[in-house]
Amino acid sequence: MWRDAIQQVIISEAALRQRIQDLGSAITADYRGRQPVFVVVLKGALIFLADLIRAVDLPLTLDCVALSSYGDGWVSSGMVHLRKDLDESITGKDVLIIEDIIDTGLTLHRLVHHLSARHPADLRICVLLDKPARRRVDLPIAYTGFELPDTFVVGYGLDYRGQYRNLPFIGALRPEVLRATPRRESAANPDLPGPTLP
């Protein structure tokens, strides 16, 4: 059975639910009187976004970007490919990036640089999971759900080779599952469409 690939539940469904309610309350208080644009990073942050926006009591709008830095591997390559850009202008608007996980910080750093060029009034970051042990660039994170050790996790939107996104919890895969795919620092697929962010 496919769930047998999970070695351990790291964050339970109940803990996720409670923490996201807390994040929603904090965002509601901080953006009171404003109408933020939530920019979700596809695909991993979709489930987080769906629960988070229902915990935010504000008028808001949504947009999305699609990036890639992992390809089929399980370590970020450092090359960030922009697969889908924003649909609407964010000039003069309060923007909150919604991301599933930050580890090296390279992907978010390049996304922040890309969006800052659009001259938003304010640009902040909300991440569900933070792996500070892997950080290579310093980024201010306004809202963090959980801090994790350097462990590869799946579930609640996070995937391994496209699978496990639909698990209602955050879990660690068994080592033998990961050993089936070589650990490559150059895992990004060079055939992905779109430019590489600077």
Briefly, what is this?
This protein has a domain at 13-149: 3-Layer(aba) Sandwich (Rossmann fold), CATH 3.40.50.2020. Helices cover 21% and strands 27% of the residues. It has four helices and nine strands.
Structural write-up:
The chain is α/β, with parallel strands linked by helices. The chain has a domain at about 15-150: Rossmann fold. About 20% of the residues lie in helices and about 25% in strands. It has 4 helices and 9 strands; from the N terminus they run βαβαβββαββββα. It has a 6-stranded mixed sheet, with helices on both faces. The longest helix is centred in the N-terminal third of the chain and has 18 residues, at about 15-30.
Outline the biggest β-sheet: 6 strands, mixed
Look at the structure and give the CATH class of the domain at 13-149: Alpha Beta
The secondary-structure class comes to alpha/beta
> Helix proportion of residues, in percent?
10-25%
Characterize the quaternary organization of these chains. Answer: single chain
| Ends apart, CA distance between termini | 42 Å
Features:
three-stranded antiparallel beta sheet, 198 residues
How do the helices and strands line up, and which of them pair or pack?
Elements: E1 6-11, H1 13-30, E2 37-42, H2 46-53, E3 61-68, E4 81-84, E5 94-102, H3 106-116, E6 122-130, E7 143-147, E8 153-154, E9 170-173, H4 175-179
Parallel strand pairs: 2-3, 2-5, 5-6, 6-7
Antiparallel strand pairs: 1-9, 3-4, 8-9
Helix pairs in contact: 1-2
